[in-house]
Design a protein that fits this description.
heterodimer; A: 170 residues; mainly alpha; Arc Repressor Mutant, subunit A; 8 helices; 72% helix; globular; B: 227 residues; 0% strand; elongated
Amino acid sequence: MEAYIGGSQAAFDLLYQRIGTRLFGYLIRLTHERERAEDLLQITFTKLHRARDSYLRGAPVLPWVFAIARRAFLDERRHVRSRQEDLSHDGTLPEPAPEAAPGPLSDALELALARLPNNYREAIVLTKITGLSMVEAAEVLGTTPTAIKLRVHRGYKELRQYLEEFQRTR
Amino acid sequence: MDPFDDLQFQRDLKPGDEVGARIRRACTCDLEPARRVSRRRRLLLTGVVVLAGLVVMLSTGLQRGREFDSGAASVLYGALGWASVLLVVLGIGVARPAGKRMGWRARMLVATLVPLVFFVYLGLAAKSTLPLSHALDDGGTLGCGLFSLLSSAVVTLGVMLPWRRTDPFNPSLTGALLGLGGGLVAATAMGVVCPSHEGWHLWLAHGASLVTVVLIGAWVGRRWLAP
């Protein structure tokens, strides 16, 4: 990050290589749409680029970048909600796409994860999937590490219930 | 096996190459060494704006010829007290780097509690309370309120400028605290220059402007302080 702020293109490439995929994984779990996640990834990096001079020397990069991504997502969601709904030609709301039937366990887990309440899902995605520490995840979500532990624990309990249901119905 | 190891994320969830190329283009086309402003310098600028605001408001208000008779000491103690609260609020707001600041709840508590305590203080400082209609009809309440609101809004925006794009974590809350800081600059100065001790005048002209500027701070903070 320091080298990138200093103007090195190679440093930016390395930064993108290291965090791009993780960030995209986080964004796709927030949005559930590939295109939106890609748009948000671009917005996040553009914001990161514009704000690079305010990055605190020596501070951990991941919480900083993930907090920017989360805020970009929240802003975009607010913007989408404030827009009028698109109606089809007959004046009715478009039908949502049918939920795919779960296949292997990982797909079931993805579905279960998508059904979790936002705060539990974010805590699990940040710590378990994206690999942030409890402290880093707490910084991103603006809360305490204890609250993150609690959310992860409760999220796990709900995930377990969903997965047990899935196993029974298989 | 940990089922998380088998998630899509670990399998094939990567942004498209075209997206990567677009990001690279956008972030490297004007890549030059960024001019960085240290946190110490930002703090210094904040202090300068606060001090300038205090001096300008005090000198503007005192030019109107306020006379201090018996209550000069209590006015001075009140001003010193709120100036100390102002320093604490700004310290909680921006002294530590974003992400390392006090917890969200504690900062929220400060942003809520300080205006409440200020209202209680104004109630205690009031020497008389006339009917509300009297304060509403009195041009002094409107003038005092507008002067207080405008000057604190200007100080708030001035205080926010050095901190632009520095807080992706809680920009609204940081903005609210900076707004509270700006409002307290006005509260400190108005406590000295305003001769009125009427209850509704104090609550409407001084108290309401503080709350308004906290809300303005939160609104502007969301747009200015986030990267």
